[in-house]
Amino acid sequence: MAAYHQHPHPEEHLTSSAVLQDIVIGLSDGLTVPFALAAGLSGAVQSSELVITAGLAEIVAGSIAMGLGGYLSGRTELDHYASELRREYREVDEVPHVEREEVRELLADMGLSPATQEQAVRELTADRDQWVKFMMKYELGLEQPDPKRARNSAATIGLAYALGGLIPLSAYFATATPREGLGWSAVITLLCLLVFGYFRSRLTGQPPFWGALKMAGIGAVAAAAAFGVARLVEGL
Amino acid sequence: MAAYHQHPHPEEHLTSSAVLQDIVIGLSDGLTVPFALAAGLSGAVQSSELVITAGLAEIVAGSIAMGLGGYLSGRTELDHYASELRREYREVDEVPHVEREEVRELLADMGLSPATQEQAVRELTADRDQWVKFMMKYELGLEQPDPKRARNSAATIGLAYALGGLIPLSAYFATATPREGLGWSAVITLLCLLVFGYFRSRLTGQPPFWGALKMAGIGAVAAAAAFGVARLVEGL
C-alpha cells in the first residue's frame, strides 16, 4: 500500500530490484490487511465460512486494486516521461536562452566556478538531444521508464498480494470456529511477517531484526484494532 | 496501494505535492478496496450489519497498515539517507581516487569534454562536503528527506484511506438490505472515483477524462470480481 521509496545503492543488483520492490509492496499489504480483516471478523461472527468469504473477497478486491493501480500508475509514468520530453524539446527550440540559463544554474549549484560553468554550458548545449537528456535527468530527475515494466509490475504486485493474503486465511479453512482459526492465523502470519520483515530489511541494508519486529508489529496492531472495532460494532 | 511514482514538474507546487501525493495514495485505495469488499459481501450475505462490520474492520485494518507502513517506510528512507551519507564520507576519505574517477565518469556521461571534465572534477572535489553532496545527489539520486515527513505522511495516508472507505460504506447504513446498499454504494462510489480520477489526472498533467474513467474502471472491476468470488464461495 504505502509507497516504498527504496533506493538501493546503484552499484548493487539493479535489474532485480524493481521486481523485488513490487513483491515487497504486494506481500507487505497482502500479509497484513487480509490477516487483520479476518481477525476482526472472528471477533464478531460465529461462522468460519463467513470469515473465509470476506477474506477471499478482500484478497480479490485488494489484488485487483493494487495490480491495476500499479499498472495504470506505470502507464502514467510512461506518459509523463513522454510529455516532459516533448516539453523540454519545445523549450530548447523556443526559449534556448532560458534553458541555457537553467543548465548554468544547475552547474553553479553543483559547485562549478563561473568560468567552468560557461565552458560546460557550451559543451552540454552543443547537441540538442544531449541537451534535452541532461535537462530530463538532472533538472527533472526523470529516467526513461521501461515500457514493459507497467504490465510486469501489475502482475507481480497483484500476485504477491493474493499469495500473501492466502497465508493468514488458510488457518480458517483448517479449523472449526473463527476463534480457533484466529489463533492459528495469528501464529502463522506473525511468523511470516517476522521472516519477511527480516529479509526485506536485509535487502535495503537496514537492521534486519528491527525490520522483522516492525513488520510483525504493523500486522499485530492492525489485527488488534480491527478486532476491537468489529466487536464494538457487533455490540451496538 | 500501488506506489504512485509521480514527478510533478519541479517548477510547479513543490511543498504541497508530497501531501497531495499522500492523499491521492490513501484515497485511491480507500475508495476502491472497501467498496469492492462490501460489494462482494452483499452478493453473499443477507445482513447489512455484517457488511458494515466487515467494511469497518477492513477500513481500520487498511488505514493502519497503510498509515503505519507509510510511517515506517518514511523512517527507512531517513535511515537509508543517513547510512549512504556516512558511506560516501568514508569513501571520499578512504578511496578518494575511486570517488574522483566516479565524478569524472558522471561528467563524461553528461557530455563534457575531457578537458572540462578535468577542470570540473578539480572544482567539485575541492570541498569535502560539496563533493559528498554531489555524489549523494547525482550518483545516488538521493535528496535529504524531511524528518517530519514520515509522521505527517502516515497520518495523511491513513486518514485519506479511512475517509475514502467510509464513502462506499455509508450507503449500507442508510438502506435495509445489502443488495439495496450495493446499488447506492456503486452509484456514490463510482461518481466519487470519476471526480477523484479527474482531479488526480489534472494534478499530474494527464488527460483528465481518461483518468476519471480509469479510476472508476479499477473500482468497478475490483467490485465485480469480489462479488463474483463471494457468490462462488457461498455457493460451494
UniProtKB/TrEMBL annotation, chains A, B:
Natural source organism: Hymenobacter oligotrophus
Subcellular location: Endomembrane system
Keywords attached to this entry: Membrane, Transmembrane, Transmembrane helix
This protein's name: Iron transporter
GO molecular function ontology, one term from the record: manganese ion transmembrane transporter activity
GO CC list: endomembrane system
Bilayer topology annotation: Multi-pass membrane protein
Ranges annotated as spanning the membrane: 154-175, 181-199, 211-233
Alphabetical GO biological process terms: intracellular manganese ion homeostasis
